[in-house]
Amino acid sequence: MRRGLTAALACCGLLLIAGCGSSSSSSSSATATTATASTSTSGLKATTTPKFAPATGPVKSGTVAIAYRNIAIAPDTVKVKVGSTIKWTNFDSVEHNVISQSGPQKFTSKDFGENGTYEIKAEKPGVIHYECTIHPASMNGTIEIVN
Prior knowledge:
Number of strands: 11
Largest sheet: 5 strands, mixed
Radius of gyration: 23 Å
Number of helices: 1
CATH architecture of the domain at 50-146: Sandwich
């Protein structure tokens, strides 16, 4: 009986330890622009202010693909050479757009649906911040154009 009681207490202790702490979820560094939530009397409220991350990764050239998928951008930051083409493709069933917010080039696409595309040619060095104005909290990105 003593062993049964000891075993039961040990199991309870392990369950208690396993249940303690916090759970965490990993997030991709490529998705540095996720929406945040804050509580209010009406529940959760998404932050709609875009958060632009600095461009990372190797310098690309030619046609550089950017995917709109799951109301997010992948990759959300790119470095490209002057003369490269940046091409956005919408893989979502909802419409998106691409609008520059700052930088050496200004552009504004029309809304485009699933399998729709929009492209620009990188003309001058500098940093362009852009967003989908339909989903600005989770869909904003950075393009760094280099010589």
